[in-house]
Structures are given as structure tokens and as C-alpha cells.
Amino acid sequence: MTTMERPIVISVGTRPEIIKMAPVHGELRRRGLPVAWVHTGQHREMAQPLYEFFGIEPEHEVILKRSNGSLAHLNALLLERLGEIFDAVQPSAVLVHGDTTSTLASAQAAFYQGVPIGHVEAGLRTFNHREPFPEEMNRELTARLAHWHFAPTSKAAANLRHEGVPDQGVHTVGNTAVDAALAGTARVEALLGQGRSVLPAELDALRTGLRYAGWKLITVTAHRRENWGEGIGNIARSVADLLRAHPDLAVVWPVHGNPAVSDAVYAELGPLVHELEGRLTLCPPLDYPALLWCLRNSTLALTDSGGIQEEGAALSCPVLVLRNTTERPELIDAGAGLIVGTDRAHIVATVDGLLRQPAALQRMREAVNPFGDGTTARRIADVLQQDLGHSPAAEPRSVEHA
Ligand SMILES: CC(=O)N[C@@H]1[C@@H](OP(=O)(O)OP(=O)(O)OC[C@H]2O[C@@H](n3ccc(=O)[nH]c3=O)[C@H](O)[C@@H]2O)O[C@H](CO)[C@@H](O)[C@@H]1O
Questions:
Q1: What reactions does this protein catalyze (predicted)?
Q2: How far is the CA of 14 from the centre of ligand 1 (A)?
């Protein structure tokens, strides 16, 4: 096989990775480049609706027989199996995303085969190896292994350069989360316009309330380990306070399946659902199109998620970050979000303040999205096409961010 015939392999497994690599997959396919998808996640059935939404059929799947839950065991199994797959597939390049154990194992397996690695969403740092663990170290180690570093912002690019990554390997391209969110929202709105059902029944009351009663919507999500226990309880209590104080407020909270999260949320808020007559929706995690619809129609998002910070900025939905830190400081610098942590009184005061000052809220909605303009996948494909010997469809461009 010539380099041009060997596929560019995308190796990912979790929900955010699939969402963020789907635009790259779509763009490589649109250009007629050979591309293969390796699913490394544990629960393929959970990923299936996403694959259907994006029209992706993974060519390969890593099925792991784990005998214990340790990271070392997971890494070893992934490394061995991915080595076998890459050996059979002979990729011209392997693309990995972000910071998971499978990101690092995919990069290692590609490195052992002498295959160049492209790291998408490179350069995010908290500068604390324990927070998030092991993700922060996975980010650094993947940077050591990668050939192409696709940094979402100039800040992320600067982080890489400070670590000695050669300048010519760093491409500031924006974040593919924006590509996915903009294209996905357009599709959701088109489908709704045709009267097709995109939203689950759980959101019906909410839709009616937004349309006819003038409710303002807040989307809430929380899943991070650091917020388990007290943090989640505080967030839930602040949501109850806000709903009681603002009769025109509605909240949708897709509750993460982990009992460390769901038990606390339902204990605090479950009894309120009936009392609030449709203004509080607690539901299982939403399919991606429904989540996009929620953000698009929300006045605010309260979240500890990374992806939702980027999607909020893309969809003009101001984001309050339920953490004490973020590896996406650009959101705050751009004025599109605020760090609020998990203190009940502080969350309530911040949301109250914003609801009472529409001009401040409007400024946040109008902030320039620091994560790009939805053309990140094109920029990534330009670089790969040029470096792998195809004539580029367009000149690679770089995005400069504040
Ligand atoms: C420890 C840590 O920091 N880990 C991070 C975490 O990333 P995250 O915080 O972005 O993850 P989530 O919030 O789970 O996912 C977000 C995506 O899911 C969509 N979504 C959400 C709720 C829902 O009901 N339905 C949906 O469709 C949503 O639109 C968005 O695109 O895991 C990644 C690898 O797993 C890591 O790389 C990343 O560092």
C-alpha cells in the first residue's frame, strides 16, 4: 500500500471524543481520503446513537475482557489490542483526542509501529497532575508522542511550546466541538421544522412552557469526581433555591448515571418535580441532539463538563462553571462564562444577579467564541492532506484567538 492508500485511523471511545472527532472523520471522507474508525470504548451500545447521528460505522472495535478496574490493566489491554489492529490496518496516521487512557494507549501503540500521531485538542493544561487524574498526565505524555498537535486556542499552543514541542508541529485550529455543535444544531432545527421528533418525551412539558409561558431555561449537568458528595448536593440545593425564587425559571438536568451523582440529585430535587409543575425536568443523559437543543434554548448553562463549556460558547449560551478551575480559561477571558465553584450561596447569587441584569447576560451571549468558528475539521484535514502527500484542498489557515 502507498501512503495515500493507507487509512488515517481515528481511535477513540468516549462520548465527548466521538462528538469531537466526528467532524474530522466527515471532512476526511468528504475529501475522499481513506479513513478508518477504531472504537475503543467499553459500552458500544451507549455510543450507537451518536454513531447513527454522525453517520459513522466503526470499522474496528476493541473488546476488552477486563479482570480488574485498574488503569494499568486497562492501559495494557488497550495497548496490546490496538497494536494488533494497527498492525493489520497499517495506518498512514493515527488521530487521537484529548486525554483519556485510550488516547494515551492509542498514541503509544501508533508510536511502536512508527506511525505519526495527530493529537486533537492538544495543549489543555491544569498544571496539576492530580487534577484531573490521570487525564492531565495523559495530555502531557500524548504531547511527547504526537507529531501533529492540533491546539484549539493560542493559549493551548503556548502551553505546548513551553514544554518544548517544536513550533512547526503546533497548529492552532480551534475546537471541533464547535463544528459539531453548529452543524448538529442546524440539523436539529431543520428536523424540528419538518415536524420530526428529535426530543425525548421528557422535554415535552419544557418545550410547551418555553413557547407559551415565557419560561427561561437553565441546563444543568454535573459528573466530575471532584464534585461527588457535597458538591453535587450543593448544586442541587442551589437549583431548588433558584426555582423557588424565580417563578419563570425552568431547569433541565440530564442526570449522570453514576449513583454517586444520581442518588444525591434525586434525593434533593426528586420531591420538587411534581410541585414545580413542569419547571424542573430530571432525566437520564440526553442524546446529543436533545442536549444541543437544550443549550440553544437556554438562558444559562450550569456545568462541570468540559465539552459543554465549548458548546455553550458556540451556541451563545453563557456558561457558569461548577468547578474551582478550568482548563478552558479562554471561556472566562472571552466573557462567555464564569467560574462559580459549588458553593450554594455563590451559585444562587451569581445566577440571581445575571437574571436581574439582562444587559450583563446579553454581553455574555454576544462574547466572541474563543474556540473557533466551526471550520476546525477543515483546518486539520488541510494539514494532514498536505503532510501526507495529497494536494491540499485549501491553504492551511491558523486561527488567532484573544
Ligand atoms: C476528567 C475529565 O475532565 N474528563 C473530561 C470529560 O469530558 P467532558 O467533561 O466534556 O465530558 P461530558 O460532560 O461527559 O461530555 C460532554 C459531551 O457530552 C454531551 N452530552 C452531555 C450530557 C448529556 O446528557 N448528553 C450529551 O450528549 C455534551 O454535549 C458534550 O459534547 O471526559 C473526557 C473523556 O471522556 C475527557 O477527555 C475530559 O477531560
A1: UDP-N-acetyl-alpha-D-glucosamine = UDP-N-acetyl-alpha-D-mannosamine
A2: 8
- Mutational test site, ligand 1, from 74, 97, 286, 291, max ligand atoms within 8 Å of CB: 291
What residue numbers bound the domain in which 166 lies?
8-175+372-387
- Sheet of 249-254, strand order: 280-283, 249-254, 216-221, 300-303, 319-321, 337-339
* Residues 220 and 349 occupy one common structural domain: yes
Specify the pTM. Answer: 0.94
Residues 37 and 158 in one domain: yes
Residue 331 and residue 297 share a domain? yes
Active site residue 59: no
Q: Would you list the DSSP string of 335-377?
A: TSEEE-TT-HHHHHHHHHHHHH-HHHHHHHHHSPPTT-SS-HH
Low-confidence ranges of the chain (pLDDT < 70): 2-4, 390-402
Q: Is residue 190 part of a domain?
A: no
Per-residue pLDDT tens for 214-229? 999 999 999 998 899 9
Among 17, 27, 135, 136, which one carries the catalytic annotation? 135
306 CA → ligand 1 middle, Å: 6
Q: Establish whether 84 is a catalytic residue.
A: no
The Cα 128–Cα 145 span in angstroms is 20
Residue 169 shares a structural domain with residue 236:
no
* Cell numbers that stand for 374 in this block: 466551526
